Amino acid sequence: MDCQRVLSLMDGYHDHELDLTTQLAVEQHLANCPACHAISQRQQALSAALAAQARYHRAPPALAAGVQSALDKIDAASGTNLRQIPRWLSLAASVAFAALVGSGVTYWLTGSSQEELLTQEVIASHVRAQMVAGRLTDVSSSDSHTVKPWFNGKLDFAPPVLDLTTQGFALVGGRLEYLANRPVAALVYRHRQHLIHLYVWPATDRPNIAPHALTRQGYQVIYWSDATMHYWAISDLNADALTSFSQRIQEQTTAEPTKRRLPTPEDLR
Amino acid sequence: MHHPNQRAQFERTVLPHLDAAYNLARWLLRNDADAHDVTQEACVRAYRFFDGFHGGNAKTWLLTIVRHACYTWLKQHRAERLTMAFDEQQHSSESSGPAAGNTPFSASPETLFLQAADRRLLQRYLEELPLEFREALVLRELEGLSYKEISAVMDVPIGTVMSRLARGRSLLQQQLTGHSERET
After folding, report:
1. pTM above threshold 0.95
2. A31 close contact with B: CB closer than 8 A
3. CATH level 3 topology of A112-268
């Protein structure tokens, strides 16, 4: 493959959109051609800078509310009388929604730097685990009944370990990790060639955070918490695939409630 | 016309992509208030046409409608030249072939870049990119869409997606390196 051809394929190469043979041919060329290699590195740096620094404009809460009331008007105009009965209900729901969004915003403002710190910790852990051979899992098994008991006695909580093989997410194993100033469970899943880390620890501090998605350095991160646990999922998968992974987890963790840890003196203060 | 179930289904499948919708509109229109109005209008439109949505990718479906609404808005307000408005004279590079790469192999281009590309600059350069390159980059780099999905949203062939990304990135790189050279 010559330089010109490689340059024409450079974007597809970086975006992982080439077929495997072409991808490998480009890779081989880059290993042997300093000039193309330099261009490739610049491209990578640009993507990283964009992902990290270009602003993602989230919909303001007023927009979500505006959309809801516009839809209400359409429903009312189209004469669905059924809608009118639960009107007060929907009003109550939108108040609840606004409260939820409001609390999310407060959390975002006060917690944003904390969130960013934790995000960086999660990314570092995800990357480091793949850099060193043998670091990825302490217990390697696709059987959740092997992985789950392994955590017994190593953590002060029992993380939910789910079998999502039929949904396309194969369990690879688990290990201990240290995040957010505490030991946490790191569960490793695989989707095609992509690894997913799911970090789990008790959510005594901030239970019931609605799912929140971030993109950092080319990685997708989704975090949320239910009544008992924090969940942080990270992968180089695309956003949709990781969202679908996190939804599977959410569905199944609410179906199978996790054990709460025993209260500690700190909790009672 | 709309069954209550349909409202629920719309809220479940389409509205989760409100952030993506707003982000696209905000980058295309470059103004909070306009992006707010156009996104809301696009959602209303999506709801009216929800009957015509038979499963599939709800995100690209909504983004297609949002993009269309943005283009309509831009045409009406003539706020943007829809054609290539980039100053080719000023920003054109010598051929971007490998011979032109004047970054030495040993120097870390990353450092060069990331120093130059402080948030405001990168933000500004991306905002100043011509519309068709800007939207491709936003959909790819910020939204993480695949070429196939971008091609559906922008209604162009995949080859065009790739060439717009390539052109957009090379324009951005010229801006950034141009800036770091001026600085030093």
Report:
1. no
2. no
3. Phosphorylase Kinase; domain 1 (3.30.200)
